[in-house]
Write the C-alpha cells for this entry.
Amino acid sequence: MSMWKHALFGAAVALAVSLPAQAQDARKETLLVVNETGPNSLDIHAVGANRPSYGVAWLAYDRLMSFGRKTVNGVAYYDYTKLTPELAESWEIAKDGMSVTFKLRRDAKFHDGSPVTAADVKWSYDRALAMGGFPQFQMMAGSLEKPEQFEAVDTHTFRVKFLKKDKLSMPDMAVPVPSIYNATLAKKNATAQDPWAAAWLKNNTAGGGAFKVASWKPGQEIVYERFDDWKSGPLPKLKRVIQREVPSAGTRRALIERGDADMSFEMPPKDFALLSQEKTGNLLVKSTPVENALWYIGMNVNNPPFNNVKVRQAIAYAVPYEKMFTRAFYGRAIKLWGGKPGPVATAAWPATHGYNTDIAKAKALLAEAGYPNGFETTLSFDLGQGTVSEPMAVLLQESLAELGIKATINKVPGANWRAQMLKKDMPIFINRFGGWLNYPEYFFFWNFHSSDPVFNTSGYKNPKMDALIEKARYETDPKKYDAEVKGFIDLLHTDLPRIPVAQPVMDVVMGKHVSGYQYWFHIQPDYRLIEKQ
Amino acid sequence: MKLILKRLLLALPNLVGVIVVTFVLTRALPGDPAAYFAGAAATPEAVAQVRTQLGLDRPMFEQFLSYVSDLAKGDWGVSLATGQSVISELKGRLPASLELTLFGLVLAVSVAVPLGVLAATRPNSAWDHGVRALTTAGVSLPTFFTGLLLVYVFYYKLGWAPSPSGRIDAFVSSPPTVTGFYIIDSLIAGDFTALWASIKQLILPAGTLALFVLAPLARMTRASMLGVLSSDFIRTARASGLTPMTVLYTYALRNALLPVLTTLGMVFSFLLGSNVLVEKVFAWPGIGSFAIESLVASDYAPVQGFVLSMALLYVLLNLLIDLAYTWLDPRIALEG
C-alpha cells in the first residue's frame, strides 16, 4: 500500500517537473491565439461558412494575387490600391482592357506535393460560381459571372475575360473567395450528387497555402502547421499556430494578461479599453479603423412615422452620440458626428455628418413633422452584437423619451436577425455594416440601392441615389468620381435612411513579444506575417 | 437481466414523446435557419435556395417522417453551425460533459457526505452551523460567479491552477480517443503527461460544480443521518456495546445513504444539462454550450440530438440508481 503511494507521488513529481520543460520548447515556435469563435467549415464556399472560416481560406489556400502593404500612423495595413503576386508571378491586362492573362509560378505546389496548374485555377473559379450563395455573389461583385470567362490557356497560363470594364474585377480576385483548390484531390473526393466535393472539403483542405491545417476540432480549436514548401511568399516565421475557442471574454483577458496566450482578436470594447490601460506593460493593443464600415441607427423610410424626413432628422438630433461613444464603445471607435453642417468637403468614406445632440432642435423638428407629443415605436437590435448595440439601444431609448417618443426595445436573437432584415419592417434599428472592397459605391450599393439588397434594411429607394452609385461604379475620370461620391454621401446625410454613429475599430491584443500584425479587410488574422521574439 | 430489459422497454414511449415534442418545438421557434445560414449578403432568392437545400420548404409532417427514418438508420442529422454530423459532435462533447460532471460529483460527494455526517453527529454545534453556512454560500452563488472567482484567485492571482482554456493544455496533445474521457484514454495510452494535464484542467471547473451541489448532498446526508441515528436499531447496536465507529459507518451511514443516492441522481441530471455557464468560463467543449449555441442559431438537428441524448441518458441513469438501491437495501426488489 505505502509503496504504491510512494510510486504515485514520485510519478506525479516527475511529471510536474518534466512538463514545463517540454512545453517551453514547443512554445517558442508556436503562437497560441484565443478567440471567441472558430471556423465552422474549412471551405469558404460552404453554405453558412462563418467569418473565422475566411481566415482558414486565407492561410490554407493561395489566391492568384494579394494586396500590398502600407503603414498608417504606425499600424500596418493592407493596401487595396496595390495588387501583388501570390500564385501568379505576373499578369498582363489586354490592350483593349477586356481580359487579363496570369502566369502561374512554376514551382508552386499543393500540400500533397502536386504542382499547381491553370486547370486547378479554372476548376476553383468555376466552383466559386457553382456553389451559389455567398461565394457566387462575391464573384459577381467583380463582374465575374460566367464559367466561360475563365480559361486555362496552358499548364501555367490562365486567362479571365471581362464582361465589362469593372474596376472591382481585379481586386475581387484577391479576396478569400477565389482561393485556388487542388482540383485533382478534390475531384477524388467528389461524388455524383456532390460534384464539387462540398462535403469533403468542409472537413478537409485541398490547398497550397502557407499553413496546413494539422487538426481541427470544430467548436474547440484549429491547429495550423507551416507548409515548408510554400513558394508564393516569404516563408512564415511561425512553425505552428494553435487557435483555441475560449467563449468567456473574462477568461480570454486572464489568459492574455498572464501570458499563457499570445494573442486575442475578439473581445468586447470594454475589455480592450481596460487592457490598453494595463500598467504591467507587457501587452500591446493594436487598434485599426475597420475600413468601409459603420455602426448606425436605421429607420424604415416607407412606414410612418419614419417616412417623414423631418422625423428622421429629429432623431439624428436626439441621438446621444457622446454618451454612446463612452458607454457603448468605450472610446474604441471613430466619431462620425458633429462635423461641419452642409455638404461634405472630401470624398472620404466613412464621412462625418453635421448632426449633433440637440434636444431642442429635435423637438422643434418633431413638432414641424406633426408629432409634437411624440409617438410609440419599437427599437430593434441584433443580440449577437449585444455588447455594443444593447447599451446603444438603452441610451437611445432614454434620449427618445425626452421627445415623448416611447420606444420599446426588441432584442432579436442572432438566428432571427437575418430574417428580420429580409422582411424590412423594423421601424428603427441599430446595426453595423462593413464592405470587403474598400469603395464607397460598393457600400452604398449594398445599403441604399433600390434593387433592394438585404442590407437596404430601411427600404430606401431614390432614383437620384441609384444614378450616382451606378455612375461612380464605372467612372474612370477621378474628378467626376469624387463629385459622384460626395453627391451620394450628401444625399445620405440629408435623406437620412440611416444615421451613421461611429466607425468601428478592429482591436487586437497581443503580448509584447509578438510582432508583424497587419490589418486585413476580412478582419481575420494573417499568421504568415507574425513572429515571436 | 430480464428486469433491466423490461425497464428499458417501458422507457420507449417516453423516448417517442421526446422525439415528437422536440421536433415540433424546434420548428415552433421564431428563428429562420435558412436566412441565418444563407450568409451575410444573401438575396431573398439565395435564402429560398438554401431553404430548399435544407428541405425546410416541405410540409412539416414530411420533414418529420424523413427525420424519423434517418434516426432509425442511426443518422441524427448534421449541425449547420459546426458543419459536423450531430452524432460526431455528441460523441466528442458528451464525454467532455460527463467527465467534468462525474469528477465534480465525486469531489462533491467526498466532501459533502463527511460534512453531513459531521453535522449530524454534532447537531447545533459550531460544526453544524459552519457546514450550513458553507453549503448555503455554495448554493447561493451562481456557478459562473464561483467559476470566475476561482479563476481569478487560483489562476490569475496565485498562478496555481493551469490556464482555463479547455480540457487539456494547448501544448500537450490529447490522448487517442477510445472512450472520449481524457483520464481513461490517457491511462489506456499510458500517457501520463496527458493524464496529469487533463486532471489539472478538471480541478477548477469540477470544484465549481462541486461547490454548487454541496448543499443538497450535505443537507440530505445530515437530515437522513439524524433520522437514522435516533432510530431503534441504532440504540440497540449502541446498547450491544459496538464501537461508535462501527455503529456510525457500518449501520447508520449505509442506511442513511438511500435518500442521498436519490438526491445524487437528481443532482447529476441537473448538472449535466445545466453546466453551460461553467463550460463557458472554462472554455470546456461540453454539450451544454453546444446546445445553447445551436438554439441561438435555430440549428434544428443538434437541438433535437441534444434532447434525445439527454433523454436516453436519464433513462439509463434512473436504471442505474434503481440498481444501486437494491444493492444498498436488499429489501427493495426491482419490479418493473
About this structure: Chain A touches chain B through 57 residues (CB under 8 Å).
